[in-house]
């Protein structure tokens, strides 16, 4: 199931600056650590200085009279976290706006950075920005310290600005640095979504704090003093704030589940639910993969043999036997080269997310099925018919390290990685798998964060089919039949003067009119222009909204962290009924891209070029990936389209998550489910959606990804 509110997501600008240096990890017990109504680690409404476990994802829903806050929080680094929040408020309007909304929807982003670990004498200290990239309706900044006493008691105290400086406020202590800090400018909402630097740490400050007590592993009791006066909500009569004290309790009925209840400000009952996911762990441990075959150990005489008897064991027989054996492991063997002392294979791994795991399975099979004189294994993984790299292993090393402690690391040190060579000398094997594949499956699509319809659901069935004309030339398509939707009838969006063409804003019309139609229908070719240089060309109905042609070239050496690419597309907007027709809007788009692997499972990407609405700009992406395949990251796009013309949100930004299906089912598979959480679907910074872009195709077989997955070589 795919969640789509916009194409991409994330506020990644600060993450790249902190990724390299943020390595500390709190050392105190996290017993009793729970989440606030804002979906961040803390007390009830106020934050603490604690961090969640590195990599943890928390989804929190908090509600009290007239307000519902839904927050996605990710512990990006041991001491840096980010949050995306979507809030529903009844009968609310922002300051300066005269017409009250029956239901107001607000979107906001938070960042929090913890400076230090707690010690026996020193508390942990953190700084935070709340709603720093949104409307500012919940805008606040804070410094907070937290100290743990024993294993059950925790005390937090902080200094807040903005909303957290609105009750019991006093002159800003930062005023000694500059008088600019003395006054907080009025909130200039505009289109929202911008970084209001003139607001940060300005105006009155106030103290907040509280105590948490965890009498058991499953229960935490809390009391806090809140410095949020709820001025706007009180003015509108949405809340009665009779006391600054809040009281609450959190119960953990199951691992990863937190349920809370609180009494707020002497007048309001609040309920919270938090669901925690740890992408660093596997629910099935090492997985439910079938056990690999054992390595066959040769005797000393066999190791010393310099040749093998081709009369007794013909090369064709070896190739056919290996092809059959590897097919059972989900590996399609395409070609083979045999000599007296070496073997070279080209193959496609269709089952294992980790190319290193596929290599381990292949190495075991080769130890069983090859003549004893063959000492050197050269494995050349392919995807889309394109060889990615060449990994050479010694058969003796495989025999020596298969069942010894530290054998995985020792084998990694002795392997040789190089670019895949030419096909010269390789003997093509006849394919034994079916070139045609198809399937029928249900599909679901959820659209969230639209201010008029915040939750839209579409359900149906889809037929997918593909035919491999050659290993590198594939025809494929998806046909969908919608069966249910709760979407209301959307109106056609027509660009007004000064607005961009509605390249994405009419997306709902494709769901309304395209109840039966073609999602995509393409012919794609992959190739190599030269060593380290890959190509892709895709033609047809590229996505739901656009057809045309897309071409791409990528330079990515197998042992390099850097990749450079370029893409040029001609796109023409499709008819709303998802048939074969087109509208009269077409555009040429293109980007130059740089990709970098930071060697700590952070992947950065910068795309500079022209977007679907004809605007020029750049997209900045930062993703964190985990050993088990999870990926969480974010992006933002800035173009020459003015914020006013872009509309609500000002510019494109959000969060994206990818979940490997083997994490869920325990069985090996290369499939994954991806979601993008972002504010709105707008036209500025919109990019063509093309399946199979080169970087994601080729990087699996390159050095850093092989290193990241090498721990699964013997699995």
User: Structural class of the helix and strand makeup?
Assistant: mainly beta
Report the β-strand fraction as a percent range. 35-45%
How much helix, percentage-wise, in residues? 10-25%
Distance between the termini: 29 Å
Contiguous uncertain segments of 5+ residues: 1-25
Main sheet: strands, sense, barrel: 14 strands, mixed
The coarse silhouette is: globular
Overall average residue pLDDT:
88
Rounded Rg: 28 Å
Number of strands: 35
Strand order of the largest sheet: 1-23-24-25-26-27-28-29-30-31-32-33-34-35
Summed up, the helix count is: 12
Describe the overall structure.
The chain has 715 residues and is mainly beta. It is 12% helix and 43% strand. It is built from 12 helices and 35 strands. The protein has a 14-stranded mixed sheet. A 12-stranded antiparallel beta barrel has the order 2-3-4-5-6-8-9-11-12-13-14-15. Strands 16, 17, 18, 19, 20, 21 and 22 form a 7-stranded mixed sheet that branches. Helix 4 crosses helix 5 (355-369) and helix 6 (395-401) packs antiparallel against helix 7 (407-414).
In short:
The protein has 715 residues and is mainly β. α6 (395-401) runs antiparallel to α7.
Topology:
Layout: E1 2-3, H1 13-18, E2 57-64, E3 67-77, E4 80-92, E5 101-114, E6 124-130, E7 133-134, E8 140-149, E9 153-162, E10 194-195, E11 206-216, E12 219-225, H2 231-235, E13 245-254, E14 257-264, E15 268-277, H3 300-304, H4 315-327, E16 331-338, E17 342-349, H5 355-369, E18 376-383, E19 386-387, E20 390-394, H6 395-401, H7 407-414, E21 416-418, E22 427-428, E23 436-448, E24 455-470, E25 473-485, H8 507-513, E26 516-530, E27 533-541, E28 546-555, E29 562-574, E30 582-597, E31 602-610, E32 616-625, E33 631-639, H9 643-646, E34 652-660, H10 661-665, E35 672-678, H11 694-698, H12 703-709
Parallel strand pairs: 1-23, 17-18
Antiparallel strand pairs: 2-3, 2-15, 3-4, 4-5, 5-6, 6-8, 7-10, 8-9, 9-11, 11-12, 12-13, 13-14, 14-15, 16-17, 16-22, 18-19, 18-20, 20-21, 23-24, 24-25, 25-26, 26-27, 27-28, 28-29, 29-30, 30-31, 31-32, 32-33, 33-34, 34-35
